[in-house]
Specification:
Blueprint lengths: L22 H15 L4 E2 L13 H16 L5 H9 L9 H12 L8 E5 H13 L5 E7 L3 H9 L4 E7 L2 E2 L1 H13 L3 E7 L13 H13 L3 E5 L15 H4 L5 E6 L10 E5 L3 E4 L2 E5 H9 L8 H13 L4 H4 L1 H21 L2 H7 L2 E2 L7 E5 L6 H11 L1 E2 L1 E2 L12 E5 L5 H19 L2
Parallel strand pairs: 1-14, 3-4, 3-6, 6-7, 7-8
Antiparallel strand pairs: 2-9, 4-5, 8-9, 10-11, 12-13, 13-16, 15-16
Helix pairs in contact: 2-11, 5-6, 5-10, 7-8, 13-16
Amino acid sequence: MLSPTKPPAVLDAAALHASLADPLLDSMNFLNEVTSRFPDAVSFAPGRPYDGFFDPATITTYLEAYTDHLRRERGYSPERIRTELFQYGRTNGHIHELIARTVENDEGIRVPARSVVVTVGCQEAMLLVLRALFSGPDDVLLVPSPCYVGITGAARLLDIPVVAVPEGPQGLDPETCAETVRRVRADGRRPRALYLVPDHANPSGASLTRGARDRLLEMAAQEDLLLLEDNPYGFFAREDDPPPTLKALDRERRVVYLGSFAKTALPGARVGYVLADQEVRDGDRVRGLLADELSKIKSMTTVNTPSLTQAVIGGLLVSSGFRLRRANAEAIAFYRANLDTLLRELDRRFPAGFRSRHGISFNRPRGGFFLTLDVPFEVSHQALEHSARNFGVLWTPMRDFYLDGGGRRQLRLSCSALTAGQIEEGVGRLAAFVEERLHG
């Protein structure tokens, strides 16, 4: 006789990890969902590369370049090449030497190849580094405010306390960072690391001056702090001689460098990396590098970064002569022109006198994909949906990037994925939306 059907299992939300109830984790899903519901809207929301740079035929070209490199430069047999492409491979990746050569050419960063960990996008890089560095409940991560939600979301998933450092027009102020470090320490907690995007930050577009970079490194040494430098937008400066990365200036191995090929190569490949050349000691014995410790964690999460996507990126690096900045010359010019177009259209649609009368302002980043627009009304998810439905324009509420309740009258505009014509049309629609809000 069959037993009566039992009701399906029901999970109590209160029994799940507390981070799942955090609005922070809902914000990205909402933005993706609202974007898909309004496909005809001009979207200043996504910070992704322009689709026009991608040609499916190049994937085969890059794979061939990589296998040719393995055969000619490394002397691999056909059997070993087959294993390299189709098997799991080295936990920390098999294009680590190519990445080390490329960052030296492009950024003047000199690290041993064994300090490179190839990750599944930069998001995994963040998770690995946070998990390795933060060992107890009193360890604190410092972040700028506003801040990229990927790092704050990762910290939330790992139950790592986060303390915000207010960001100014030119990024983080080293003296403010030092004051925050001392305040956290006075509270009996350990400020373990500071996360920052020194070049054209997401979401604000702010960049650190050369002087601020030097002072920040001095502060990190004085306060025994690590710097987690995230640099996805460094190539895309509006100037021809941008300041060096923190890692290029790093002489005391204070900087853990988080890199990605999402903006400079192929976002769909989902390949990132960490430069983790810090020594790890066990008493008086050197146990290895931080990269070796990250490998242990990675082996229990993603096992390794997919060999095929590594091969595609490896082939791109080989094809570019290990000079990815030069290979991005067309993209650099495109994104510069886009940001110039966005700034010009904002000036045209919101003239200086109009801005002054209504309390409207925007910053003028030195490069990158983003800028912020200050408006005299509340900017919410509901306002975004109204903007999309009635005016056909999307953007990102800045409140999602603040930990301290800020950004309520700010929105982020990204110009990377659009053409000049779309930017002009989109700013016109945005101006109409703002005009409606100003008049009730």
